Amino acid sequence: AKGLTLVYFYPKADTPGCTKQACSLRDSFAGLSGKGLTILGVSGDSPEGQKKFKEKYQIPFTLISDSEGKVSAGFGVPA
């Protein structure tokens, strides 16, 4: 990947705090990506749950399903 990557972790899609966080990044996406920043959101939700969340809130960046907690563990984030 080119540039910086922001990897953020959230406990569960479509909950108030997680939705607010994702929508804030969505609203800032054009400016952030224009500066070369790639955004990845990671949670333990299923791929189907991630897809519904992404579509419902028009999230323009990649959401990763980490149902086994391997990505979280690799970053030292508690599952």
Explain how this protein is built.
- The chain has 79 residues and is of the alpha/beta class.
- It is built from four helices and three strands.
- The protein has a three-stranded parallel sheet.
- The longest helix is centred in the first third of the chain and has 12 residues, at 16-27.
Mind telling me the C-alpha Rg?
A: 12 Å
The fraction of residues assigned to DSSP E strands is: 15-25%
**How many β-strand runs?**
3
Helix content: 40-55%
Topology order in helix (H) and strand (E) letters: EHHEHEH
User: What structural class should be given to the helix and strand makeup?
Assistant: alpha/beta
Low-confidence stretches: none
Largest sheet: 3 strands, parallel
Strand order of the largest sheet: 1-2-3
Question: Helix count?
Answer: 4
Q: What multimeric state do the chains show?
A: single chain
Specify the overall morphology: globular
Separation of the first and last Cα atoms:
26 Å
What would the average pLDDT be, to the nearest integer? 94
Brief descriptors of the model:
79 residues, alpha/beta, 3-stranded parallel sheet, 4 helices, globular
Which secondary structure elements does this structure contain, and how are they paired or packed?
Blueprint: E1 5-9, H1 16-27, H2 29-34, E2 38-43, H3 47-56, E3 62-65, H4 70-74
Parallel strand pairs: 1-2, 2-3
